Amino acid sequence: xxxxxxxxxxxxxxxxxxxxxxxxxxxxxxxxxxxxxxxxxxxxxxxxxxxxxxxxxxxxxxxxxxxxxxxxxxxxxxxxxxxxxxxxxxxxxxxxxxxxxxxxxxxxxxxxxxxxxxxxxxxxxxxxxxxxxxxxxxxxxxxxxxxxxxxxxxxxxxxxxxxxxxxxxxxxxxxxxxxxxxxxxxxxxxxxxxxxxxxxxxxxxxxxxxxxxxxxxxxxxxxxxxxxxxxxxxxxxxxxxxxxxxxxxxxxxxxxxxxxxxxxxxxxxxxxxxxxxxxxxxxxxxxxxxxxxxxxxxxxx
Amino acid sequence: xxxxxxxxxxxxxxxxxxxxxxxxxxxxxxxxxxxxxxxxxxxxxxx
Lengths: 301, 47
What we know:
The complex is a heterodimer.
Chain A: H1 2-26, H2 40-66, H3 70-91, H4 94-102, H5 107-127, H6 131-163, H7 172-193, H8 199-210, H9 213-223, H10 241-283, H11 287-290
Helix pairs in contact in A: 1-10, 2-3, 2-6, 2-8, 2-10, 3-5, 6-7, 6-10, 7-8, 7-9
Chain B: H1 3-42
């Protein structure tokens, strides 16, 4: 396990260095913004990674909430399947197809996303049964906040030389991203400082409502007038193919990095709960349960 | 300010944020390891 982690870390490190080199030295220089546009190769992949992590947190939180009642579990599963099927069918209806095309979106892309939703939901429940769902949720929220912080820091650093201002007050893309960050910071604070037995349920409920901000952030530039540039993929914007390759390479590198960080954070949470359990057993005066059954030799990655 | 400085500031800021977070993870692992050592010491036969 430790060796596998080490090998993955080295490979990810090399990929990150290569992707950064491509972004800084190989990618073509944008005509109007110049070299400062290269912030794009860190800003956009960080945003996509944060959205993906918040989405995993959302699905894990729904499953965690639904597992309390078998009927809720079945209902949630069928709701996800229904959304997937309805989304896929609706994508190919002529009026929807027309609307999507006017926004520069491919119906097949939307249909694939819709189908992936129930598949992802079912797989997550299988891979992370019981309490592991809650551990996964907190892991993804924490790492997602880190990536969202990168977005909020690199955004103004890109905006200042291009727009002439650090922040556009009232701009829906910027404001909704800040709100998203605040929601997940609140989620983490709730988990950190609440001692109630209901904390995990409350946090899961907050995560489900908080995740609704993700589509608002993503689609805000499609439906509202904003200072933020239009989407370069799946929208009406366009991008040089070489830039697109380097953008995707950087996203792959960030995804590998995020996976490794999530892996470590997941193991940290498992270990933390085991230690808490052992201390609880010890305080109950049960050395037999607290002692030998604990995997005390388990090493951190 | 030269625009290129904003580019480097963004890249450096990104890695400072990730580095700080990784630092907190390492610190938390260290703290847990200490707790585990303490627990295993308390449960050695004869204690």
